[in-house]
Specification:
mainly alpha, 3-stranded mixed sheet, about 475 residues, homodimer, 21 helices, Neurolysin, domain 3
Amino acid sequence: MASCVELLGWDELTYMPRGGVDQRGRQLAYLSGLLHDAATGDRIGELLSRVEDSDLAAEPESPSAVNIRGWRRSFRRTRRVPRALVQEQMSVATAAQQEWSEARRNNDFARFQPWLEQIIRLKREEAECLTDGGPLYDALLEDFEPGMTSARLDELFAALHAQLKALIADLPKRRRTHAGILRRNFAMDRQRIFIESIAGDLGFDFERGRLDVTTHPFFSNIGPGDIRITTRFNPSDFSEAFFSALHELGHGLFEQGLDPANAGMPSGQCQSLGLHESQSRFWENCIGRSRAFWMHSFPKAKEMFQDALHDVRFDAFLAAVNHVEPGPIRVRADEATYNLHIFVRYELEQALLKGDLAAADLPSAWNERYRDVLGITPADDAEGCLQDSHWSSGQFGYFPTYALGNIFAAHLNAAVRSAIPDLDPLMAAGRFGPLSEWLTEHVYRARAFDDATGLVERICGCPVNPQVLTNLLRSRFVEV
Amino acid sequence: MASCVELLGWDELTYMPRGGVDQRGRQLAYLSGLLHDAATGDRIGELLSRVEDSDLAAEPESPSAVNIRGWRRSFRRTRRVPRALVQEQMSVATAAQQEWSEARRNNDFARFQPWLEQIIRLKREEAECLTDGGPLYDALLEDFEPGMTSARLDELFAALHAQLKALIADLPKRRRTHAGILRRNFAMDRQRIFIESIAGDLGFDFERGRLDVTTHPFFSNIGPGDIRITTRFNPSDFSEAFFSALHELGHGLFEQGLDPANAGMPSGQCQSLGLHESQSRFWENCIGRSRAFWMHSFPKAKEMFQDALHDVRFDAFLAAVNHVEPGPIRVRADEATYNLHIFVRYELEQALLKGDLAAADLPSAWNERYRDVLGITPADDAEGCLQDSHWSSGQFGYFPTYALGNIFAAHLNAAVRSAIPDLDPLMAAGRFGPLSEWLTEHVYRARAFDDATGLVERICGCPVNPQVLTNLLRSRFVEV
C-alpha cells in the first residue's frame, strides 16, 4: 500500500490537474490511515517479539536481522503517533504543497505562511510523540537518518563550515570563468534527449524507469521495476536540468540497483537519506563534473547542441561546469558553497520547530542568514525561503542529510578510486560498467542501510570526517 | 479507495514503464481485495436494510433513493463474487493488457491467446456467481448497463442492422469524396493544441482535467476535480486524434458536469455505459461532424494547419469528415457503419463466453464475420481482433453499450434540437453554452442513471427506437 501512496504522490507533483488537490488529499489521508492501522496492529508486535530472539536475528547484517531491526524501529515509532495526526499531516501537506507552488510562482510568502504554521504545529506534535527526551528536532531527524543526532551533526557541520570558509578564502581571485557558455540557448527537447542518452550510458534502465518534468526535481520508487526521476528544464541554462537530472539519476541508480528480492523490506530499501544523497551528489559532482566524464560526454553534447557549443573548447566547458560563485539557489549551487545553503536551513528549521522563530519572521531571518553565511541577499522570497518544497510537505530534518551526503560521497569517491585505479580512463572511454559494479556490490546491495555512518566507515576503512570532502574540493578548486 | 484504483489504472496505461507491470498487478490486486472487503461487510447489508424502508427511499428519483438502490445492487452483486476471484481478475488483467499491447504492436495473436483464455475462464466464473438463471452474458452486461438484457439488445440490434443495411444500399454511388484531405501532414504538436483549444470551446475545464496520449483512448474519473481523457495521434491522419479526443471529451464533459455534491455515490455517477456512450457519440458525431460546429471550428483549423488546409474549401472539409466507407477499425469507422463493428463484437463475445467459440479460433471467426457484415477482410490480426483493449481488461458486455449509446445519442440530439431551435446558429458563432446548460440540466444532473432507457425516454418523450438513429443517419448521408 505504501507504493500506492508513492504513486499518488508522484502523480500529484507531475500530472494532476489543480482541481484534483482536494480529492488527492482525501485519498492520501485515507490510505495513510489504512497504512497506519496495518503498521501498528498488536499482531505485528507479537510477531516481532517472537523472531527477535530467534536465529533470524542472529547475524546482524543478514537481511532477516536488518528487516527485524527495521520493522521494530518503525513499529515503535509508528505506534507513538496517533492515526488522526498522521491523516491530518497527509491532508495538510497535500494542500500546502499546492499552496507553496503557487506562492513560489507569485513570490507571495503570505499565501504560504498559514500553511507553514500548520505544518510546524503538526510536526511539533509529531516530535512530542516520538521523542525519548532529547531535542524535538532529533525525533524528526531519525526519520531521515536513523541513529543520527543534532549534537553529532553540529560537530560535523561546525568543522566543515570552518574548513569551507578557509577554502573559499583561498579560491583563486579573478579567475577567468566561462559560465556564460552554459547560459546560451539549449532547446528543451534536445536537453531531454541528451539527458536520456547520458542516463542510459550511466546505466539507468528506462524499461524500469522514467524521466518527467516537475517544479522541484525528485525521485520515486513505485516498485522494483518502476523507478521514476524528474527534472526541470530551462532553455537558457544547460546546468539546471542536466545536473538536477544527474542528481536524481544518482538516487534512481541506487533504487534500480537494490536487490529486488528484498523489495519493500527494510533490507531492500535505504533508510538513510544521507547515504541516498551520497549517491545523488556522487553522480552529480564527483562524476558529473569530472574531466573524465566530460571526455566521454562533451563530444555528444557538441553534437546535440551544435549552435550553442560550436565555438566552445573542452577546457572552457569543463571550467564552466565547475564554476564557483555563491548564489541564492541551493539546487544551482556549486560544490564549494552548496553546504552553506544547508547550514542555513538546518539552523532555521531547528529554530522554527523550537518556536524560537515564528513562521512570519522566516523571510527576514532567511535573508539575514544568507547575508551572513553566503554573503548574498536573495532578490525576493521566491528565490529565498520559498525555493524548496521540503517544508511544504512536512520534511523537517531532511536538509542536513544533503550535507551528510556530500561528506559520505567524498568518502565513497576516495574508496572507489583506490579500488579502480583506472576509473578515469575507463570513464573517458564511456565505460561506466566497472563503476556501476563497484557501487552495486558495496553500496546498492550492502543492505545494512540502518547504520549509514558505520557502512561508509566500513567501506572506506576510516572514520567519517569532513576533511575528506574539503580535501576533494580543495583539489578541484584551489589546487588546479 | 476506488479512486486510487482508478489512478493506478490510468497511470498503467499512460506513463508506467514496462518494468512496473508486476508491481502494478500486485498493487491493484491488493487494493481490489480491500475494496471488496469494504463493499461486502455485513454491516453494509444491515445499514441498507434499515434505510430501505425509511423516508430516504420514499421518492424514487431523490439522490438518497438512487443511492440506496445503487448500493443495494452493488452489495448484492459484490457479495456473490469471491474475493480471491476479484483479486485474480485484477492481477491477470494488468498483465493481459500489457501482453495485448505488445501482441497488437507485433501482430502476434498467439502471444495474447493464453491470456484471453484465462480472462474468459475468469469471466465465466464471475458470471456463474452473478447469474440468477438467465444467460451468463446478461450477468456481465448488468455491470455496464443495469437492467438491460441480451434479449432486448437482440431485438434492438436486429432492427438497427436491417435498417442500416437498407441505408448503406441507398448511399449515393460514386459520390465524390475528399477523404484524402484529412490524410495530409498534420504536425502532432499542432493537433494537440487544436484539440485543447476546441475542448476549451466546448466547455472542458483543464483546471479540472487533462489530456494525455495512449494506445487506446479512454477517460478516467480520479475525483470530481480531476477528470482525465486520452487520445492517440497520427501525423498523417487528422481524424484519428481529433475524433477520438472528441469522443473521450464527451465522456469527460459528462463527468465534469456531474454534481460534485454526490461525487463517489451512485447518484453522482453514471452507471449506464449506454448513457455515457451517448454523450461521447453525441459530441463525436451529432456535434463534431455537423456543419454548424465546423462553421466555428474550420477557420481555427485552417489557421493551425496552414500547410495542410490552405487549398481546402469548407464544403470539401465537411464532406471529408463525413466520409462513409467501411473499414477494418472500429474507432475510425464512420457513423453509418460503426454499429456493424459492434454487432460483430457482441456476437463473438457471447460465443466466447458460452464456449461456442474457442479463443484460438477468434482470428478466423473475426475475419469471417467482418467479411459477412462489413464486406471487408482485415489485413492482419492487429487491425482485426487485436484492435480493441476491452477483452484484455476483462470487459465482456461492454461493446453493446456503444451501439446503445448511438441510439440514445440520436434521441438526445432530437430532444436538444427541439428545445433549442437556434442551436445551429449558436454553434456556428462558437456559442456552446446553451447546449452545455441543456445537457447539464437534463443529462449530467439527472441523477437517476440506474435506468438509462427510462431516463432517455422521459427526456425525449418517446420510447427508445433505433429508427430515430437511422433517420438521423439517412438525413446526413442519403438525403444530402
